[in-house]
Design brief:
10 strands; ABC transporter transmembrane region fold; 21 helices; alpha/beta; 606 residues; elongated
Amino acid sequence: MRLRAILPDLWEIVRPLRGQLFIGVVLIIIARCASLILPASTKYLIDDIIGKRNHEMLMPLVAAVVSATIIQAACSFTVSQILSKTAQRVIADMRRKIQVHIGRLPVAYFDKNKTGELVSRIMYDVEGLRNLVGTGLVDFFGGLLTAILALAILFRTSPLLTVLALAIVVCVSVAMFFGFNKMRPVFKERNTIYSEITGRLQESLSGVRVIKGYHAEAREEAVFATGVQKLLANVVKTITGVSLVSQSAVVLMGLVGALVMWIGTREILAGHLTLGEFITFTAFLAFLVAPIFGIVSIGSQLTEALVGLERMKEVLNEQREDQDPARANAMPAIHGRVEFDHVDFAYEEGKPVLQDFSFVAEPGSVTALVGSSGSGKSTTIGLIAAFAKPQKGRVLIDNIDLTTVTLASYREQLGVVLQETFLFDGTIRENVAFSRPQATEEQIMAAISIARVDEYAEKFPDKYDTVVGERGVRLSGGQKQRVAIARAILADPRILILDEATSSLDSESEAYIQAGLAHLMKGRTTFVIAHRLSTIRRADQILVVENGRIIESGTHDQLLTAGGRYADLYQRQYDLEKNLFLAEGEGDTVDEPLPELTPKAYRPSA
């Protein structure tokens, strides 16, 4: 991405802080002008005060130099304070903006991108703005201004020397521009590698129990070492490139010095230039050349900053799910009728997940989804939760197309208990109250009681103020699910989704929870995914899903009587549980062998 293409985006970022930037630029101009007083005084010191012994000029000259130095220091300090703090505000604002934007992206975006990479984009890529707005702006703009002022004085002092020196400086500048332009893809690759390493590292730390359980520490170490080595190779490549540009500049600047020395001496001997003018010219030449070396030092930082800005723009260009122009209407209070009208859905083109999927769930009813893994049950739940939109057909809530309503107005009437229970690193009370922050203490405790969270929480020293740890790691699977169920109870939703809500509970805990769930489901349209078929016998309708189609539907008794796929699944599961129960009894024997759990046993019959 070219600089001129990025400038509008950069201006949009800094526009709210343009007042501070204007003050900073003014102070930079004052500071740089003051910095030229000292080299400019050299001519008068040598030619007038020393050469002509004009002692009266000494004190005024010294006073002017001291005053200019104080002004320069004061302005430089003030501008560093203003612009550095401004840069930090810009960084903070951009982090908030990107976090808000990413948080509003569709679920499909998170399925395609690693969490660590997204964290890197929020925290790491934004850091480069410090060089575009803060210290980098001071060095770049200040150096450029100094070079322009120095160039004007150099032309006035010796046009011949200036033209010759300027020709070499321009060559150096052009070479450096192309050099850094060539290195920009390398810096972009570095950001990508860094994001990949961060993502993998976060996965490894989150899955440390799985890694240790399978003694896979060495494998993870090898994966991380490979990534670090790849990052090292990239950094070495950039170091080499920057060094080549830098040393090329050193060589060419040396040629400038030699040329000025040779021609300058001849000009002095010819009487065309005084000694004071030559020394002044040399001093101002340094002010012209210094920004070139400054660009070398900050060039890589500016390049990284531009790459980071480009990556930020890529994220911000992703359409948020609440920016869909079709979602223009607020969802009214939901009664709870849910209908799938000939729905087709696929995550990837050509690989359908749901095909001609149709059913109706009446308000207050319980609909259970049954089928083998990958049959489309979770996808159905995702469409009901508006995590995705169907490619064909419609999902209707109270006869309203779900794709036409704002997500906030719909999801605030939705409750979800997922199979993979997620808790935040806070207290039990905070995790329960997450679904309804404005809830009273009485409402929170009522939800806790219904979900039987109090049975174990009361035994902790801090009771409901017990910190559960990252992802609820300090609680057992069953304890975490009880908290998740309490969270859904507190939300008081009109549509409730239970995805294996009791999968991590023992039989005794499940019996308690089922009573709480029965209370929760009363009067609400509920969708249940359950592999344990004994938990859905009271469902108003059971949908048997295979290969993205509904192959059977009805109540528990109706489907058993039909003797189809559901009856087959139920009988196999019943026999398995009976044999496992008998195998655990004292002195009991198993009369029949356990059924073979082959993949064929759980495939739909022809």
